[in-house]
Amino acid sequence: EKQGFKHFMLKEIHEQPGVVRASLEAYFNPGESTESPINLGLPADLYTDLEQIQIVACGTSWHAALIGKYLLEQLAGISTQVHYASEYRYAPSPVTANTLIIGVTQSGETADTLAALTMEKERRQGKEAKYQARLLGITNRPESSLGHLVPHIISTLAGIEIGVAATKTFTAQLMAFYALALDLAARRQTVSKDILEKIINGLRQIPKEIEATLETQERLTEQLAHEFAETQDFIFVGRGINFPIALEGALKLKEISYIHAEGYPAGEMKHGPIALLDAKVPVVAIAIPGSVYEKVISNAQEAKARDSRLIGVTPVNDGEAAEIFNDLLPVSHVEELLSPILTVVPLQLLAYHIAARRGLDVDQPRNLAKSVTVE
Ligand code: F6R
């Protein structure tokens, strides 16, 4: 069943190009619509006069939601907030009839996410019009409890994921958010047809870019894993659309290798965390040309000045980056907006190889379960 891979997690990392292809095929066709090149099978009134979006999720799904927020705000111009479901259920935001609430859960069974949505459903049943928010779920298991709880679902197309650490289901969630944000952008005309087409064409190139990344990274991350197998702390930094990838890289590492890791927005390092840095604490920086590239590079330089070893997730052939970083995990040149689907791959592999090197049970890490059905 592992098809020659040592662990399910590694197999699932390698399945990601196929997941992106399946998502492109399913979501990115116009169907009957002349308004949008995307078809998510959602009723039009879910989109009418939307004013704000509230997303609830946990763990890796929460990270996907943060990227979703970036896309929904920057492409579709809809103010979006992302909440930990375990927090939102006890302190919900004010909503209106023009609010869309999205629950994101791979398993469709996460207790806190279900409870946050149940609470919203109950608020809706009160007669007050102001609580009549619309509900949408994003899940890899439409037959799950989530599927029964909310009226509309976007099914993510990862196939069954066995490794406890979420990898391909995260990529599938990102694809759902690209489709949703671009669909809204097309219908609300917040992005021109040309730009829309350019982004969609870029997405169509992603599967082969992930394949290329997998090919080069497998060996590089394995080599780095030799050197970092005994490291005690890691810092991951990114900015903008790659800040959530820094969080995800840190989460992957801690959950399967049991190494302490933290993700930060790179600009926040100087407000405290920089005090942690020295030669024993490596810093992984995600630096993609675009709106914040120079900023990330200069934040990385600050870390280097504290003797941290710098690992760069950055495009190949970039002279400047190559000089600053001690080690490179190169990714292809892609639009910043699409880069998270690529930049997450070396971080998944790095976590995987470090955990495997430490001889740990990668697919079944201690204290964790695939579905967290308790509060
Ligand atoms: C991390 C991981 C967890 C889950 C979280 C939410 O690799 O697997 O953080 O992402 O428990 O799970 P779902 O998406 O099933 O609600």
From TrEMBL:
Enzyme class, spelled out: transferase
Subcellular location per the Swiss-Prot or TrEMBL entry: Cytoplasm
Residue ranges of domain SIS in the record: 43-190, 224-365
Catalytic residues (UniProt): 370 (for fru-6p isomerization activity)
Any GO BP annotation: carbohydrate metabolic process
Superkingdom of origin organism: Bacteria
Official protein name in the record: Glutamine--fructose-6-phosphate aminotransferase [isomerizing]
Residue numbers of the full-length protein present here: 252 to 626 of 626
